[in-house]
Amino acid sequence: MRPFTKPMSNHQALVLKSAVFSRFLLLSLIILWRTLVDPYDTSAPLNPPCLSSSADDHQDAVLFPRIGVAIETGIVWDSVYFVRIAQCGYEYEQSFAFLPLLPLFIAFISRTVFAPLVPVIGLRAVLALSGYVVSNVAFVLSAIYFFRLSVIMLKDPQAALRASILFCFNPASIFYSSIYSESLYALFSLGGLYHLVAGANTIAVLWFALSGCARSNGVLNAGYFCFQTMHQAYEAIFVKKHACLAVQVLFIGALRCMCIFSPFFAFQAYGYYNMCCGRSLDEMRPWCKAKIPLLYNYIQSHYWGVGFLRYFQVKQLPNFLLASPILSLSLCSLLHFVRSQPETFFSLGFRASNEERKSVTSISSLKSGLGLNSARLKEMSKTKLQENQNLRLRKETLLVEDDHTAVHEEFSLLEKRGQLYYYIVPCTLHLGFMAATAFFVMHVQVATRFLSASPPLYWFASSRMASPLTGRRWAYVIWAYSLAYILLGSLLFPNFYPFT
User: Fold this and answer.
1) What single DSSP character describes residue 489?
2) Whose CA, among 84, 370, 415, 480, lies 20 to 30 Å from 164?
């Protein structure tokens, strides 16, 4: 991948500034509302001793206890679990619902970078501070990856910029600035997808695996490699007529998917070892005796009532209304991408892939037919690029226009272009599956943050906002929705009131 040109660097700098500003805005709102509004639940600073006591669990008097207590009041909702795990490890069965990546980051930073602050504000306050730093820094990095991914997928720097700024101020922003795993998941899932479309498969596997260490739905990212493997196997069998190559492709694809799944299942095995091993049948929990003892599924069902249609109750209607904007936006996004490229979607990208492959083949034939040597191609390339400076700027952003001219540079880029567009298909299918899961299986109000890292949402919103006829109306609705949820979330969530 070639470096961005100056205009693209300006766009990326603007995304960076927007991401940083949005985090300062959220943190300022959190502090403001915590100051002005009394919390619904005042138990945030409570911290009973760890079951396995150690020297770190009992701290001497700190220098500034009020500052420590003020920081600890930000440990609300699921943040309680993440901080507790970072401090004491996995003590209780229900704590295994929270995957270890965020607690590991919190524990590492609190014991290294912020270790000198422990005598000043206390261990738990340092753990909370570490959590806030991890989440906010991870979000800023995820915004950069989102922009780079959007540039490649949309082939339009302005559309990518709009989508990225929308992501910086998304409706679930409060969770990206709190001690929650959303930021780490977004960083590693968006980063993994970017490396995948950039051709760095090994790095993509690593990043997708880390996303599965942050949130359980990170294992769904293996679907991108399933999609890639399916296309590569098809090409090996029907285009190259090479059965051995197809077997190799399938083996490598299966291995990559196993690598993405392995952290989640390793964590389940760790839970089984801690909760089940060394106990008699009478002492074992019910899930320990199952043929496939999955602790995560049991916890979600037993402690939180998660299950198919179990949330379809009249008393939950307000929560369905709270989630209706993000679910509606998801449905509109799905319909938009399907209608824009129906052949690509209904053929799962095979038809589009063949057309692009034919385009590349025709250019290759033209190149060989003209009998142009490398020096001549470079000379033509220089002339062509000088005559089309505007087109040159677009191509420097990795966006390649189909040009049936025998130019060596353009041909080499077109050879790499074939896989890019049809990755919108798995991105959209991924969004559709998660939206259906949020609506039919999960606590539906969680949909706002559950779907907030899905790129097609922002790509669709960006395209609607650029419409010459309805763009202003769409922009008003989208920004009103995002800002309303940012204000509402920063008011309710830090004060221990229910919000998504």
Assistant:
1) H
2) 415
Instruction: Tell me phi and psi for residue 176, to 5 degrees.
Output: -80, -15
- Which has the closest alpha carbon to 211: 132, 294, 101? 101
Splitting the chain (500 residues) into consecutive groups of 10 residues, what average pLDDT does each group show?
A: 64 96 96 90 78 60 90 92 95 93 97 95 96 98 97 92 97 97 98 94 97 96 95 91 93 97 95 89 86 90 92 94 96 93 83 48 37 43 46 42 35 38 87 97 95 97 92 94 96 89
pTM of structure: 0.85
3-state secondary structure of 52: coil
Q: What is the DSSP string of 265-280?
A: HHHHHHHHHHHTTT--
Copy the structure tokens of residue 210.
Answer: 């880390």
Closest CA to 459 of 147, 5, 221, 211: 147
Rounded distance, CA 121 to CA 117, Å? 6
Contact call for residues 207 and 241 (beta carbons, < 8 A) = no
Rounded to the nearest 10°, the torsion over CA 268, 431, 135, 9 is 140
Alpha helices, DSSP H, located in 283-423: 295-304, 317-340, 342-346, 350-370, 374-387, 389-395, 408-417
Give the pLDDT of residue 60: 65
Residue 482, H or E segment: helix 471-492
Token code pair at residue 260: 């993405």
**Token pair for 235:** 């090409």
Nearest to 234 by CA among 427, 416, 422: 422
Rounded Cα distance between 456 and 484, Å, is: 21
pLDDT at residue 43, as a whole number: 74
pLDDT of residue 358: 45
What is the reported pLDDT for 5?
59
Q: How far apart are CA 319 and CA 327, in angstroms?
A: 12
Question: Which pairs from 67-71 meet CB under 8 Å and 24+ separation?
Answer: 67/120, 67/121, 67/125, 68/121, 68/122, 68/124, 68/125, 69/45, 69/125, 71/121, 71/125, 71/128, 71/129
